[in-house]
Amino acid sequence: MDQFTINLLFVGASFALYIGIAIWARAGSTSEFYAAGRGVHPVTNGMATAADWMSAASFLSMAGLIAFTGYDNSAYLMGWTGGYVLLALLLAPYLRKFGKFTVSEFIGDRFYSPTARLVAVICLIIASTTYVIGQMTGVGVAFGRFLEVDSTTGLLIGAVIVFAYAVFGGMKGVTYTQVAQYVVLILAYTIPAIFISLQLTGNPIPGLGLFGTDQASGEPLLAKLDQIVRELGFGEYTAHNGDTLNMVLFTLSLMIGTAGLPHVIMRFFTVPKVADARWSAGWALVFIALLYLTAPAVGAMARLNITQQFWPEGTEGKAVSIEQIENDPAYDWMATWQKTGLLTWNDTNGDGLIQYYNDKNPAMQEKATAEGWAGNELTKFDNDILVLANPEIANLPGWVIGLVAAGGLAAALSTAAGLLLAISSAVSHDLIKGQINPAISEKGELMSARVAMAVAIAVATWLGMNPPGFAAQTVALAFGLAAASIFPALMMGIFSKVNNKGAVAGMIAGLLVTLVYIFLHKGWFFIPDTASYSDADPMLGTIKSTSFGAVGALVNFVVAFTVSAMSKPIPREISQLVESVRIPRGAGAAQDH
User: Fold this and answer.
1) How many other CB atoms are found less than 10 A from the CB of residue 189?
2) What Å distances lie between residue 53 and 48, 57, 290, 317, CA to CA?
3) Which of its termini does the chain have fewer beta carbons within 10 Å around, N or C?
């Protein structure tokens, strides 16, 4: 059986499972559509939360970013994990105790203002839409490779699948679908990692193999990797080669952005009581840790395998030849990925070899001139393909490659569904029912939610065709927007007496300053003086666009507290509401809503 057929079997079986679950768990009321009827078990909710959390960025892109940068991109691991802990400890139980369906509804009621609710809806839609672009990018990458079509066609196919199970199932259908998707994605991520760790180090536990010995050379694996990348002009894999301030701000942006993203917060509204929200958070962290403890090993081992393929040992420093790429089965993965447009190479100097090295390093430029090289001839290696290509590079069995195909799609689709549900809930429940037509019937609200989700899928698909970066980079921008707008409002709503004017002013200020910085930094305003900026050329000191969310959050807090201090204090009943939400009354029936 050829690899294409195996891929179709694995992907097709997983899709049949997801759609079957969605039909079985079809939402019949707004309570089921928004909060799964508040009847989800904590362990089930923890697994669904993990699938919702571990998006295409975690599954597809994070290991790729770590692989090609090394230590500095461990910020993704630290920020996302730390942010989840922050969410579980500081926000989830209190928001569940408040007893509302959506984050925007909490903000509107806590700050006793329809305007606050409307601003929260706008912030939520902007952040969630940016986030879902990254997921749809991942869907296109995975479908494009394993159905052997271009990534745009893959993206369109993925959008149809998301529509099929998310629009009709709502939160109830999405919850149980995500449980199945978690099982698929975690098996797809860990099984290849175990195989590759055994190949390279003899240790079946990837996290331990990362600090083990490379069997081929007898050297510590990380030391061997440091040596190879250093010889090619790159910074040492285990060294801190970037700017410390930017790394700290980036980690902080990811952390507080995590705690402000509504699609994860919504999951804590689905359990029967507040104590279950805490248990859900704990179980989710266990399930998330299984992948996050494996990701650094996947990145390092993949980088070692790829680099050694382009500079094979025993060739006296000669790069891999085009003849070898075309005829050696070990390089078949390159031809397959070339069809997607995400991997390209070009023998610029016509020597029959493909040189891969850091052509921006002065020492390597000097060596390249002496050797007659014409620059880095591996012209494109999209970070998002690394995890999917890893089993092929390591020559693993066909069923493992098929499993990884299903896993990559599960990761992207699970988070895309959660985000689209958050967007549709904001439009139907907070905007239409809360602002435009409060008298709308439950049936009408349910229909408006489904229409809103269908429109959101269409918009996300269109934007996913031209994303502003790799999946994880696009997601990082979304985290920055959530960090600057939603997180401060939630924190102040629970732990302070900030009034409605302060909250509205803070959210607007945080969102605008972050959007303007990102747009200027990316050159999206088409201003000549800014169009040349990139993530390598920050505008404000060393702060990159993906790190600015922490600064935007600070602006939000400062503006909110300043405006609040200059205006009337919150009403007495709101003050009592804040106290009732924040002060624990014990677990059990007293907390149930």
Assistant:
1) 26
2) 8, 10, 13, 43
3) N
310 closest CA partner among 239, 373, 365: 373
The model scores a pTM over 0.85? no
In sign, the C-alpha dihedral spanning 190, 192, 194, 196 is negative
**Dist. CA 241–CA 43, nearest whole Å:** 40
CA atoms within 13 A on the CB side of 583: 6
Q: Could you tell me if 144 and 384 are in contact, meaning their C-beta atoms sit under 8 angstroms apart?
A: no
Question: Interior CA angle at 308 toward 307 and 314, to 5°?
Answer: 145
Taking the C-alpha atoms of residue 468 and residue 134, their distance in angstroms, rounded to an integer, is 9
Among 7-16, 200-209, 428-437, the range scoring the smallest mean pLDDT is: 428-437
The per-residue DSSP string of 423-439 comes to HHHIIIIIIIIIII-TT
Residue 570: pLDDT over 80? yes
State the average pLDDT over residues 132-144. 73
Nearest residue to 277 via CA among 287, 263, 267: 267
Contact residues for 179 (Cβ-Cβ < 8 A; gap 6+): 44, 47, 48, 51
Residue at token pair 């650094």: 296
Are the beta carbons of 522 and 587 closer than 8 angstroms?
Answer: no
Burial 196-222 (b: 16+ CB within 10 A, else e): bbebbbebebbbebbebbbeeeeeebb
Sequence-ordered list of residues with C-beta below 8 angstroms from that of 548, at least 6 positions apart, any chain: 249, 253, 480, 484, 514, 517, 518, 521, 540
Is 587's pLDDT higher than 80?
Answer: no
- Is residue 4 within 8 Å of residue 419, measured between CB atoms? no
- Residue that has been written with the tokens 């061997």 in this structure: 224
Both ends of the chain: CA-CA distance in Å? 55
Sign of CA dihedral 206, 208, 211, 214: negative
Element holding 68 (H helix, E strand): helix 62-69
The answer to whether 505 and 533 are in contact (CB under 8 A) is no
Residue 535 confidence class, pLDDT cut points 50, 70, 90: very low
Q: Domains, the chain, ranges and CATH?
A: 3-21+42-70+84-302+393-591 (1.20.1730.10), 303-388 (no CATH)
Q: How many helices (H) and strands (E) does the chain have?
A: 26, 4
The token pair that represents 206 in the structure block: 């990837």
Q: Give the position of tokens 């002065």.
A: 362
Q: What is the mean pLDDT of the chain?
A: 81
